[in-house]
Each structure stands twice: as structure tokens, then as C-alpha cells.
């Protein structure tokens, strides 16, 4: 995205963001915003500074705690695979219905039309959605970083080819290409789905990383590394990428929230998770007609998606502020 | 991208290349902008070609198009399978089928479009034309609304950074782009449509509803306007009083079932809008601009007085569009005539005022037809379809019908886009507000309005343009879900049905429309760039 920067009024003398996240071995780039505040005699490492700023962001901190609780509850309550959880009911069994199945102490999320415990079902859906979202986040971050770094570092035909490829993926609406691939991978279970979703959501990160690398490769410490004969791969992994880590981490976080919305939307349309697997999207799709009569079947999975996506977005916002605090300065 | 603006656009990402200065500079001989745009079109065409090939190959390999027949017990099953294989050319290689499709599309340039046939032998071109018109109507409306609301919210939150209002908008923005659209759609159907339809049958607010609504309005307005505690209190109390009296008056007049605006209403509201636009664009100290705006409003209302019979009785769309164009030309001309030292400002002010006056006129005509519309359709807001089937009414009642059908999906798509636009605008504005030239502008004594509108906002607009263009393409993708939930027969349905049947022709038609829309929007963004950033024109 260097292009936006280039067309900004201050474009020419723009100071890249490396200064705030310099973990570079040569360590030339200790920028002003990273300097310890006057009056404090203790000095902090870059990582500590980022962590301090992050934990001062109340929204992000709250979101992290809530997301942690959701993850822990989703995985421990009904257990994972063969490991049993602490929740006494099973998502496959049909229990005697209490009344019309509205939430009670016995069944906190209510029961579905057949008497299944809805808490267990929603937890199972949450597990699947979380696994998919995090896998997609990891895959798309790896692919995006790799493609962006190669394009930005080598320039020339490598950049042309890789960036035109990125454009090809971008021009197809994300939901459309994901639906086509999801339909293809439908039978391969959730990991297959996660893989194909990861293979279409890397585009924005690739562009961001490329922009970042384009400005980093011109800096003195890269020149120094080249001068002593460091190989290209080592320069990329040891000198360039560590300085782009802020952009990558923030983007990775936000790609998780994109992934969870994408996966649930696809499952809602029927191109995502296929039975017998379940996800929050399939639950909503299955029970949306029940909204008038059994609203709880509709509310819970939606609220879970909303909670997860909201938490991830807030964490991303906190990370962005922590890595790049320039916007937080009030107008002076 | 600078600073905090690396937010992903929901469901999408950025598209094709931004016009970088590097490229702009290299295209500086001859007619730079034209050459630059031509090059961009060429590059986009190649990208589209590659993407279409990818999409085609993926689609035809996504499943088995004969599956439903294989599972059927029809006695003439084999014959049906042979027929379908023949029609869809399943025995040919993917390459040949793609080439076949491509040459059909290529025919569009010579006047004989052929987008192929569906799995059942229906001509896709026809289907696409119908579907695209309803989808584009939806998308265009939401995009326009989202730009206006999102950019306005973004500016206000940037100016009032760290205020309660900023936090509220930020939280809502996060909420809206974390919202699963399909879930929110069902909620909206229940609470916005069904409950409203129940309520409109009576059309009276309970007193406590009015008190709560007025309290809310007062609270919001004082949070937006800010100022000292005393000023906030006065703002809040005045708003509370105004809204409460207004709503009680509406109740007494049975306004919600029988709304009216009248020519006086058009005059008052448009004049207020004119003053506001002048205050924002030119500043109230520019008297010529103010008089120009007010002249526009008066001329508009007088024109409405004379054309009212034309408007009320069965006008055609062509007539309406013609009148709109005429009013736009006249308003800009009024601005040019008042002119003065800042003629461009005046023309912008009168142009915007003219558009607002036109909208008010249409609103007035629509309101006058609301009661008779309720007579035809007693539950006005529908949750399914883009038009009520077999709806017979006058022209304006049909417009109202379309409006009430488009209302819910538009709200939904707008909310998500507003969330992204407002965040982007906010961070872009904060970025520019921290620049040295803004401090210079302040220190040389410019008014806060001039600093914000002319120095900060104009520069902040440059990245926003890009986001808006990309978001348009993303919205078409998002429309797949919205259309599914609201039962629209649009591009989304075309895509979904095609994909379910492993039928490439409709899927590719969807891709063509979205791809071309994306490329066109990017072109618009480029032109806007050139207008906003003179360095690109150089």
C-alpha cells in the first residue's frame, strides 16, 4: 500500500513505521515515538513498550479477556475429540423437553426442536468456527507475508507476476471465490475448508507487506547487510520482516474476524461446513425459520459470532495503537 | 497505507493498483490523465481475463453437473443426461468450454452478446439484465447513503476525538462490521418490518415512547455538538423540547398515517439545508454564496409550484430525470451568476442545495401518496422480494412500493459500509489534522471551518476515495447474502443457483457484472484522485 502513502502530501519524506517495532539485528531505527517518556528512568525494550501500550487499551484488554473465556469455555465444556468436558450433556443426544424448550437452569441455552441441549450444540459450533477462523488466519498470514515479501524485495518481474496474481484474486468478490472453493472442499471436512479459505484471503496482507518491504529494502541497515554479503533469504527473514511485524500482526488479527464472518456466511449459504460437522453459521441457517416461535435457537449462535468477531476487532485495534501510536497523540 | 488505516474492508480487500505517483509521473508526457487511464483500463482488462479463466475453471470443477440426474429414477434418465451433456458441452475440455464462453462475451463488442445458456437452456443474457438492474439499484443506493453518512460521521469523530460521541460511534462501527449480515437481516425483518407494520395500522406513539425518543435525541445532539457544560445542557433541553412537541403534534395530526410536508415545508427545510451547506462549504460570511443558495431554494420551490401537476399525475422516469438535470443545471447557473470572488464555492453550494431541494420535492410528492399507498398495501414494509407481485397502483404508489421493498436490505448494507467508511475517514482525518500544514493554516488565522474543510478534509479525501471504490465491489459480494435473506432475484441468486447446479454460465455472468463494476469504480476513483491531487495531473 505504499501507493497511498506516495500520493499523500507528506509522501516523499514519509518516515516508515519501522521505528516503533525495530527488532532488527542492526538496530539502527530507534525512532522518537519509541523513546522512553521523560521522567522515567527505567528503559523498556520494543516488545515491552508495545505490550504496555496494548494493556493500557481498555477495550482491547476487555476483548482479550472475553475472547479467552469464550475459547476456554467452548473447548473445555463439551471436550475435544475423545477428551470429555465438564458439561454433563452431549450434543448428539435428545433429552426430554422441558416446556417448549426455552432456556432454563437445566438447559441454559434452551433445547432445540428435537430436545437436544442447545448449549452443547452451540459450543460445538463455536469450536468448529474458532478452529476454522484461526487456521484461516494463520494460513492467509503465511501466504500473504511470503508473497508480499518476495514481491517487495525482488521487484522486477517477480513483483509484476505476484502482484498481477494478487489482482486476479482481488477482482473476484471474496464471497464468490470462497463459495466456489468451499463447494469443492465441502467433503474434506473443516480443515479442507480452512485451507481453501486461507488461500483466498491473503490478498490484502500481501499488498500491505509489499508496501512495507518496498520502503524497508531501501534503508541503510539492509544496504549494510547486503554489503557484508548476507543472502537474500536471510535479509528478508532477519532484517526486513521483523520490522514489518506490526503490520503483519494487526492484519493477521483482523483476518481472523474476516474469516469467522466469511465461514459463517458460507455455511449459512450452504457452501461451507457440511453436516455432520456444524458451525455457528449452519446453526443459524438451520433454525432461522424458528425465530418467531423459538427465538433462543436463533439468538445464541448469532451472539457468539458477534462476540468473537467484536473481540477480535477490538484486539486488532489495540494492537494497531500499540504498534503505531502516532494517531493517539491528540492534535497539537 | 499510513498509520492506523490498515483496516480491512469487510468481506473484501483493496482492489487493483492504486494510482501511485511513480506511475503517474511516468505518464507525464502528452495527455497524462487520459494516457494514464487508458493504461489502467488495459491492465484491468488483463486482470479481468485472468480472473475469468480462474473462476471458470474453478466453477466447472466444483462438482458434478449431472448429479441430480444420476440420482433420479426417471425412465429416460440416460437421454436427459445425454441432452445435458450435449447442451453444456461436458465432453469438451475445460479449455474449449472457456474459449466458447469467452468468444460469446467477446461478441458484446460487435453487438451480439452471448453469455451462454443455463443448465436448463435459458438464455443467461436476459436473466442477467433483470438481475443486474435490481442488484445495482440496491448497491448504488446503499453506497451513496454510506458515503454521505460514513464520511460525515468520520469527520465528526475525528474532530471530537476521545469524546463520548467518538467512543459511541467507534463502538457502533466495530459492532456493525462484526455483525453477521445474515443474522442481522433476520432481526431487522422481525423488528423493523413486522413490528412497524403492526404499529402503522394505528400510527400513534405512546407518550412514554415520545419522552424516551426526545431524551435520546437531546442526549445525542449535545454529545455531537459538544461545548461547555452549560451549552450542552441548553442544546440537550432545546432538542428534547423540540422533538417532544413535534412528535405530539404528529400524533395529534395522525401524521404517520397521513404525512404531509406541503410547499411551505419544502421551502423551510430546503432553506435550512441551504444555509447549512453554505456554512460548511463557503462559510456564512460569504454572503453571495448564502444568497445564491437561498435563491436556488426559492427558484426550486416556484418551479415545483408550476410543475406540480406534471409531477403528481403519472410522470415517466424520463421526465423525472430530465427535470432533475434541468434543476441541477439551473442551480449551478444561479451559483455562477451570484459568483463573486469565490465563484466555484458558490456553484458547489447551489449545486448541492439544488439536489437537496429536488429530493425534498420528491419527498413531498411521495408523502402525499403515503395514505393512499397504505390503502393498497396495509403492511407497507415487506421482507421478501424486490417488488410486490401484481402490485397495481399509480406511478408514485409503485415508487413507494419499490422504496419499501428496498428499505431493509439497503439499511443492512449501508450499516456495514458506514462502519468501514467512518473508521477510514476518521483515521485519515486524524492523520491530516496532525500534519504541519494544518498547524500552519491554524496559525495564520484561518477559521476552524476553513482549516477542516479546505486543508484537512480535502487531503483526507484522497485515501477515502480508494476505499469507497473498493467497497462498492465488496458490496456486490455482500449482496449475495442480503439477497438470499430478503428473497431478491438478483445477481446473488443467479450466482448461487448457478453454483449449486455446477452451471458456469450464470456464475460467470455474476463475475462479469461484479468485475466490470469493480473496474469502473476504480476508474472513477482514479479520476477523483486526479481531481483531488493535482500532482497526479502534472
How would you describe this protein?
The complex is a heterodimer of chains A (332) and B (538). Chain A is mostly helical. Helix content of chain A is 62%, strand content 0%. In chain A, α3 packs across α13, α4 packs parallel to α7 (189-198) and α4 (118-154) packs parallel to α13 (295-323). The two termini of chain A are 27 Å apart. Chain B is mainly alpha-helical and 538 residues long. Chain B starts with 20 loop residues before the first helix and ends with a helix.
Secondary structure layout plus pairing:
The complex is a heterodimer of chains A (about 325) and B (about 550).
Chain A: H1 2-7, H2 46-56, H3 58-77, H4 118-154, H5 156-171, H6 174-185, H7 189-198, H8 203-216, H9 220-227, H10 232-240, H11 245-269, H12 280-287, H13 295-323
Helix pairs in contact in A: 2-13, 3-4, 3-13, 4-5, 4-7, 4-8, 4-11, 4-12, 4-13, 5-8, 6-7, 8-11, 9-10, 11-12, 11-13, 12-13
Chain B: H1 21-26, H2 32-60, H3 67-71, H4 77-88, H5 94-106, H6 124-159, H7 164-177, H8 181-200, H9 207-225, H10 229-253, H11 262-281, H12 287-312, H13 317-338, H14 343-376, H15 395-433, H16 436-443, H17 448-486, H18 491-500, H19 504-532, H20 534-537
Helix pairs in contact in B: 2-19, 6-7, 6-15, 6-17, 6-18, 6-19, 7-15, 8-15, 8-17, 9-10, 11-12, 11-14, 12-13, 12-14, 13-14, 14-15, 15-17, 16-17, 17-18, 17-19, 18-19
